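Quick question, first post here. What does this chain look like in 3D?
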Amino acid sequence: QVRLVESGGGLVQPGGSLRLSCAASGSIFSIYVMGWYRQAPRNQRELVATFTSSGITNYADSVRGRFTISRDGAENTVSLQMSSLKPEDTAVYYCYYSDHGRIFQYWGQGTQVTVSS
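> Answer (accepted):
Ran it through. Tokens below.
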């Protein structure tokens, strides 16, 4: 089993910034994919950004240039720096962790991000 611990999130005004972090522990993989998905009310869960153990990043078009995903110090820990936030970024953000082949997938409990004036 893999345990994911998320931190960050909250309420921010449009144009502001927030940082999310996620740490994986337990039966972690040597080669992995880690990142964030989000789900707004009445919407399907969608990709935000992912980071592989080899350093490859992938971003949704809607966040590219505004969000940055990176390893946060320790292995199996990633951060998502969100800037120039928009009201449409409001959602529950879920940490995601999987093996390289995405056979074993794990999700965090979710953290609310609300962008509102």
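The CA atoms of residues 70 and 78 lie 6 Å apart.
The chain is about 0% helix and 55% strand.
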